[in-house]
Amino acid sequence: MSEKIMADVNPTKGFFINMLTRDIELNDAILDLLDNCLDGVVRIRAKQEKNRDSKDFYSGFFAKITIAKELFVIEDNCGGIPLDIAKDKAFRMGRDETAPREESATVGIYGIGMKRAIFKIGRSAIVKSVTSDNSFTVTIPKDWEDQAEWKFPIEMVNRDVTDINGTRIEIKDINEAIGKRWSEEGHLESYISELIAHIKKSYSLIIERGFKVEVNGQTIEGEPVSFVWSDDDKGIKPYVYRYEKDGVFVRVAVGFYAPPPTVDESDSMAEKSPRRASADAGWTVICNDRVVLYNNKDHLTGWGENGVPRYHTQFIGIRGIVEFISKEPEKLPMTTTKRGVDLASPLYALIKKKMCEGLKIFTNFTNDWKGTANADTEYFKKSQNKTIDEIMGEGTNTDIQYHRTGEGGEQAKPSLPKPPKKGADTVWIRYAVKESECKEVSNYLFEEEKLPSEVGLECFKRVLADALE
């Protein structure tokens, strides 16, 4: 009997590393490292049975990033890596499907985040972990790609009494393209500013709940997502919806974060308002506290679909947020890079319908009030701003009356104020003049600058009085 001939299908390390890193941006790779820090916090809080929507859920925990021309370091105080996890799971290239599942709502799905990030940035690294039980380092040597062995050496070290429980990753031998960018004059500072803006968007909710992130000594401030809220039953409130099925909990809120533009504001004037900007409008989608879409204003979140108009600056004051939470992150509708939604997800398709339903309430409100002077702003003056945790979190006193829906879940639709009906004998007068000329007339009539609508109305009143005489 002839000997069976076998074809070698083992991947080469070079091919594996190239394929692993080519489709992820540098910023997103660094966010993967931050995700590992946050997952450590989630595991700690799960043992403490702390509510995820608590304002201080991440309080007391931090991650510090240091970037130099030839060095990248990230260190945290988020519990460290248990030795058995390091040996069998943390450094493995991919997730072992036979291994026990996480018991907490983390964002790691495929088991490649830390390794992919390390190889995206450089070719050698030292990972140090300190837990309450032990301390060790894992070394990824520069020539690992050329070695036959698919393993990294682990070295046990003495745990110092001053050590904090956490992880430190030091990456050297920075990849050529990245090193060249960081080495050029002014480019490292520019990149750090870019990274800070990226983190601020992606971790706004987490920073709001107490997590501290530093980049080269600079503490990053969050950008909390809040909504206009009135205690008046007929005042301004957001639309809210909550849904739970098959181990996934979802909550949705959409409403105004600022008043819509008044009749005195052109598109460009609306953008210049200190109260609002198009960059702050749109939908933010979050999976296990990780922002995967930030203030999106296209078809991914329902704009221009299902009866919802396409985004326009007249909708500049509208914002929405969707949170997905699950202990089985593979059920979350996010892409492998965690920077987008999976439109093929049946769960996301269902939730997107509710997003559109809520969005239409506020686009319709904006259209209904458009051109009715500035009366609607009075409703906003009587309101306050509240975050989604303050509106929908446990222990809140917002007294929302939820109603079951046909799709499952519960929702609460606001009863927004209606504009006054225009009389049958009423007409609108609209015309455009130069801004400088309008200011000139305003100073002549009032000895100060007034809104264009007030200037126009005063002009009409004076001419009307002359005509009636």
Descriptive notes:
The protein has 469 residues and is α+β, with helices and mostly antiparallel strands. Helix content is 31%, strand content 21%. The protein has helices at 13-21, 26-48, 83-90, 113-121, 176-183, 187-202, 204-208, 267-272, 346-369, 377-381, 388-392, 435-446, 452-468, and strands at residues 62-68, 71-76, 122-130, 135-140, 154-157, 166-174, 212-215, 218-219, 226-229, 239-245, 248-256, 282-287, 290-296, 318-326, 384-387, 403-404, 410-412. It has an 8-stranded mixed β-sheet with strand order 5-4-3-6-2-1-7-8. A hairpin with a 5-residue loop joins β16 and β17 (410-412). The chain is elongated. 34% of the residues are buried.
Helix-strand layout with pairing:
Blueprint: H1 13-21, H2 26-48, E1 62-68, E2 71-76, H3 83-90, H4 113-121, E3 122-130, E4 135-140, E5 154-157, E6 166-174, H5 176-183, H6 187-202, H7 204-208, E7 212-215, E8 218-219, E9 226-229, E10 239-245, E11 248-256, H8 267-272, E12 282-287, E13 290-296, E14 318-326, H9 346-369, H10 377-381, E15 384-387, H11 388-392, E16 403-404, E17 410-412, H12 435-446, H13 452-468
Helix pairs in contact: 2-4, 12-13
Give descriptors for this structure:
469 residues; alpha+beta; eight-stranded mixed sheet; seven-stranded mixed sheet; 13 helices; 31% helix
How are the strands of the biggest sheet laid out side by side? 5-4-3-6-2-1-7-8
Topology as H/E string?
HHEEHHEEEEHHHEEEEEHEEEHHEHEEHH
- Rough outline: elongated
Helix content: 25-40%
First-to-last CA distance: 120 Å
Largest sheet: 8 strands, mixed
The low-pLDDT segments are none
Percentage of β-strand residues = 15-25%
- Indicate the radius of gyration in whole angstroms: 28 Å
Number of DSSP strand runs:
17
Derived structural class: alpha+beta
How many DSSP H or I helices?
Answer: 13
What is the mean pLDDT? Answer: 84
